[in-house]
TrEMBL record:
Taxonomy, superkingdom: Bacteria
Compartments it resides in: Cell membrane
Organism: Sphingomonas naphthae
Membrane disposition: Multi-pass membrane protein
InterPro entries, A to Z: LptG, LptG/LptF_permease
NCBIfam families, per database record: LptG_lptG
Originating gene: lptG
Protein name: LPS export ABC transporter permease LptG
Residues passing through the membrane, by range: 20-40, 68-86, 107-125, 282-301, 308-325, 337-360
Length: 364
């Protein structure tokens, strides 16, 4: 029995090069087509803001393209594997390798190793570039493609309820006692009836609540606007009610999201959905490692038997079935129906076993 993981250095480099070139070519084509379609749909909104032009369109492309790369990289690896193995099979190169004693696992080994490198690069790309692009694009879209808020880490458009009253904050910057609120509006309600609206450009936390600086009060019952000295609202409202009210896992790096989850747990807030996103930041890029195994069925069998197309369809079906299961698990984790670790890792483990079973039963 041949227990070597790689058949030979020459074969490994040859297959890795074919696989990587084809996967990157497919990825470039997908991103180019999808970016064009996306830009056609969003260009009107971008240009609708006064003063926006070609520079803002290219800026939008620079923020949206990393998201498309991260989302469709596993699809590109799947299609790149199918194209590579189908081509090798069609040219009888797979038959020649198997006749020389190379096993199916040794044929796929160079592709799996290249996928491990791709997965590692994908994790770094997602953590360092995609999260920042997502945070900036989200903030830009919230202001209708106008001037981007000065702080990317700011929580924007936050609503907090205390008894019958409501507080709306445009931006909450900082953490803990150093948190500062900008554009705060306090809605004083008596049951279902609105009695007063108080607005201030900024507020800071003080003992007993939040101090509004230079507030304007509108008395709804009398229809009178008056200027008020500094006043305190929001008694017993902690800073995390503003800064952690809407944590977007996609806009935070792995470390930043882990810190936010720890803060939420300390505040007694639910974190199951964010923990699912945290684990998926690892399992998502690792899906590229599964693609050669799931699509490997396309590389074997006799090409002249007429079943090469059927094998390619089976490989593609297994790959897309994984993406469906992965999205389903992520959705169940966000809803709290599955534990976070199970939601993020169950599809990966399941299809790893399925891919190995198919490969062993059909080729080994």
């Amino acid at each position: 029995m041949n227990l070597k993981f790689f058949a030979s250095r020459t074969i490994s480099l040859y297959m890795s090069r074919l696989f990587v070139v084809r996967s990157l070519s497919v990825l470039a084509g997908l991103v180019l087509i999808l970016m064009t379609l996306d830009l056609l749909g969003e260009s009107g909104d971008v240009l609708a803001y006064p003063g926006n032009g070609d520079a803002q369109l290219w800026y939008y492309v620079s923020l949206r393209a990393p998201q498309l790369v991260a989302r469709f990289l596993p699809f590109a690896v799947l299609l790149g594997t199918l194209i590579t193995l189908a081509t090798l099979n069609q040219n009888s190169e797979v038959i020649a390798m198997k006749a020389a004693g190379v096993s199916a696992h040794q044929i796929l080994a160079p592709l799996v190793l290249a996928s491990v490198v791709i997965a590692a690069l994908s994790f770094g790309f997602n953590d360092r570039i995609v999260t920042r692009a997502t945070a900036t694009l989200t903030a830009w879209q919230q202001v209708k493609y106008g001037p981007v808020p000065p702080s990317r880490d700011a929580a924007v458009d936050v609503w907090v309820r205390i008894n019958d009253d409501l507080i709306h904050v445009d931006q909450a910057i900082g953490r803990g006692a150093a948190t500062k609120l900008q554009g705060i509006t306090y809605y004083d309600r008596n049951g279902p009836s609105l009695t007063k609206i108080v607005h201030s450009d900024s507020a800071v936390q003080v003992p007993g609540g939040w101090q509004l600086r230079g507030a304007n009060e509108f008395d709804v019952t009398q229809g009178v606007m008056r200027r008020l000295p500094d006043m305190i609202v929001g008694k017993d409202i902690t800073a995390d009610r503003f800064t952690l009210s809407s944590v977007d896992g996609d806009s935070r790096s792995f470390g930043a999201l882990a810190t936010a989850i720890a803060d939420l747990k300390a505040a007694g807030r639910p974190t199951a959905s964010l923990e699912t996103v945290l684990w998926h930041k690892i399992s998502g890029p690792m899906s590229s490692i599964l693609m050669p195994l799931l699509a490997g069925v396309a590389g074997f069998g006799l090409a002249r038997s007429g079943k090469l197309f059927i094998r390619a369809v089976i490989g593609m079906g297994l790959g897309f079935a994984y993406f469906v299961a992965d999205n389903f698990g992520l959705a169940m984790g966000n809803l709290g129906a599955y534990p976070p670790i199970l939601a993020a890792w169950a599809p990966f483990v399941l299809f790893l076993l399925i891919g190995e079973t198919v490969l062993i039963r059909t080729e080994e």
